[in-house]
Design goal:
- The structure is a single chain.
- Helix content is 46%, strand content 19%.
- It is globular, with a radius of gyration of 22 Å.
- It has two domains: 29-123 and 248-316, 3-Layer(aba) Sandwich (D-Maltodextrin-Binding Protein, domain 2), CATH 3.40.190; 124-239, Periplasmic binding protein-like II (D-Maltodextrin-Binding Protein, domain 2, 3-Layer(aba) Sandwich).
- Strands 1, 2, 3, 4, 5, 6, 7, 8, 9 and 10 form a ten-stranded mixed β-sheet that branches.
- Residues 1-21 have low confidence and may be disordered.
- It has 321 residues and is of the alpha/beta class.
- It has twelve helices and ten strands.
C-alpha cells in the first residue's frame, strides 16, 4: 500500500474509532450537577429526572449538589470539566440568563461555555398578600399602591433573582411602587407575608401551594401564561397586565463542545422523562408547567426572550454585582 493510501486508511480508522467511542456512550456513571442545596425544589426535580434518565441510558445518574455563589460554583464545575457528556448541569434563569447580566465578572460565559439541550419545566410565580390586607386582586393591589405611595413592602428569596426581578417588571407594567425586602430563602419570605412583616410577597407557586390551600395567605395572581390546572380560580397577572409573564424555568446543559451524538442521546433521555405520565402528573399537581420536546431552535429562542425581558429592568435599575 502506498504512503498516501496508508495515511487515508489511518484517518478512516480513527474516524471509525471515534464514532464507535461515542456510540458506546455512556460507559460510566453520569453526574447531574445541581447548583442548589439538597432537599429543595430544584434538587427534588433533578432526582426525579435522574431516575428516568438512568433507566433510559442504562447507567447510573448520580445527583451531586454544589450550591453556593448564586449557582456559580456548580456551574463552573461543569464548565471546567471535559466536554464528554459525563457531567450534566441543571440550569435555570439564574445561571444562564441573570448571572451573566448582573455579575461583572463570572468564571464562565454562558453562551460560549454551555449548551442548554433541554428546557422541560417552568415554575410559575405567585403574587401573595397577607390575609389582613384590603386588596384581594392584582388590580386592587395596583390601586392601593398608587393611593398609598411608600407604604407597601414585598418579600422575596433574593434581591437579584427571577422572583424579585419579576415583581420589578410587574411594578413597572402596572405603575405602582413596593419596596423589596430580601430574605434568606423562600420559606422565610413566605412566613414574612403570613406573619404580617410585609404586606405582599412573591414566591414559586409550588412552594406556596400548601399555604394557599390552607388559607394562610392570599394568592392575587399567578405569572403563567394561562391559569394553572391545580388552582384555576387564581387569575393570571396577564389578565390585569396583558402579555405579562414570569417564571423560574428548569433545564439541562452540557459543556460546550460535547459531541453532537452525545448531546442528542442525553436530550432524548431527558425529553422522555418529561413525557412520563407519572412524573408529569406529580409536577402538574405541584403547580408546575411541563414542556414537551422543545427543539434546539425553540430552546435558544426561549432563552433569548427571557434574557430580553430581564435585561431591560436590570439596565434601568443599574443592578450590578
Amino acid at each position: 500500500m502506498t504512503t498516501p493510501k496508508l495515511a487515508l486508511a489511518a484517518l478512516l480508522s480513527l474516524g471509525t474509532l471515534g464514532a464507535a467511542a461515542n456510540a458506546a456512550y455512556p460507559e460510566q456513571p453520569i453526574q447531574l450537577i445541581v447548583p442548589y442545596a439538597g432537599g429543595g425544589a430544584a434538587d427534588q426535580m433533578a432526582r426525579r429526572f435522574a431516575k428516568s434518565i438512568s433507566e433510559t441510558l442504562s447507567t447510573p445518574v448520580v445527583v451531586v449538589n454544589k450550591p453556593g455563589g448564586n449557582t456559580v460554583i456548580g456551574t463552573d464545575l461543569v464548565v471546567k470539566d471535559k466536554p464528554d457528556g459525563y457531567k450534566l448541569l441543571m440550569v435555570t434563569n439564574t445561571n444562564v440568563v441573570l448571572n451573566p447580566l448582573i455579575y461583572q465578572k463570572l468564571p464562565y460565559d454562558a453562551d460560549k461555555d454551555l449548551k442548554t439541550i433541554s428546557i422541560n419545566v417552568e415554575a410559575p410565580l405567585v403574587v401573595l398578600a397577607n390575609n389582613n390586607m384590603p386588596f384581594k386582586t392584582l388590580s386592587e393591589l395596583q390601586r392601593y399602591g398608587q393611593q398609598h405611595p411608600g407604604k407597601l413592602n414585598y418579600s422575596s428569596a433574593s434581591a437579584t433573582g427571577p422572583l424579585s426581578l419579576t415583581v420589578e417588571k410587574l411594578k413597572k407594567a402596572l405603575d405602582f411602587g413596593m419596596e423589596p425586602i430580601a430574605y434568606s430563602g423562600g420559606a422565610p419570605a413566605l412566613m414574612a407575608v403570613m406573619g404580617g412583616e410585609v404586606q405582599v410577597g412573591i414566591d414559586a407557586f409550588s412552594g406556596s401551594l400548601p399555604s394557599i390551600r390552607a388559607g394562610k395567605v392570599r394568592a392575587l395572581a399567578v405569572t403563567s401564561e394561562q391559569r394553572l390546572e391545580v388552582m384555576p380560580d387564581i387569575p393570571t397577572a396577564a389578565e390585569t397586565s396583558p402579555g405579562f409573564k414570569g417564571s423560574v424555568w428548569y433545564g439541562f446543559a452540557v459543556r460546550a463542545g460535547t459531541p453532537p451524538d452525545i448531546q442528542e442521546a442525553l436530550k432524548a433521555a431527558i425529553d422522555k422523562a418529561a413525557l412520563d405520565p407519572d412524573l408529569n402528573k406529580t409536577l402538574t399537581e405541584q403547580g408546575l408547567v411541563v414542556f414537551k420536546n422543545k427543539t434546539q431552535a425553540e430552546i435558544d429562542r426561549f432563552i433569548a426572550e427571557d434574557r430580553e425581558g430581564f435585561e431591560k429592568i436590570i439596565r434601568e435599575q443599574d443592578i450590578k454585582l
